[in-house]
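Chain A, query sequence.
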Amino acid sequence: MSQIYHFEISDRTALEPLGSKQKFWFLLGPRRTLFKVETRDTGEDWAEKIASKLCHIIGLPHVDYELADLYEGDTFLNRGVICETCTPPPFSLILGNQLLLKLDPAYPAKQGRYKESKHTVDATCNALKHLARPNDGWMADAPSGMETSLDVFVGYIMLDAWIANQDRHHENWAGIQRGLFTVGSHIRSWSRFSEKSFRC
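Chain A, predicted structure.
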């Protein structure tokens, strides 16, 4: 049985502005931890937990999601999931739309997440050529033959099909960078922010 972590809302250290769901940063011991609130009561919390376990089973790089509850004093507020940051300092994320914009100044990076006509397979594959695959720590259990960032990304697309994830847009895949991004700089791929769909 999985542990359910308990967080006090007054202990949050920051809000997370990315995405449509309410998110908070907390410290879990020394680790910076993101709490993603489940407000729609659709099971996204347990779906993300299951998807992270499936990633573990098949060897895809992923953050581990754990179930969590949010309280204000003795009052239960929401349930959700937590995951440790995959970008401790000095690292940061460069989102897919930001990377695509750096490679194509005409890319409409701010026009919304869905149905963006320039967020194409070709544009994404071109962007992935500029990313190194995740480092060996993330790739320790990866299947043989997963050698490039494109290989890893295809693994995530296959996972999306397996769990019926329809939430693949240019703001929920990214690279991990150290310092400032320039085209041709060394950025590691990182793709899984949201594994919330799951259908049986």
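The two ends are 20 Å apart (CA to CA). The helical segments are 44-58, 96-103, 121-128, 136-139, 149-163.
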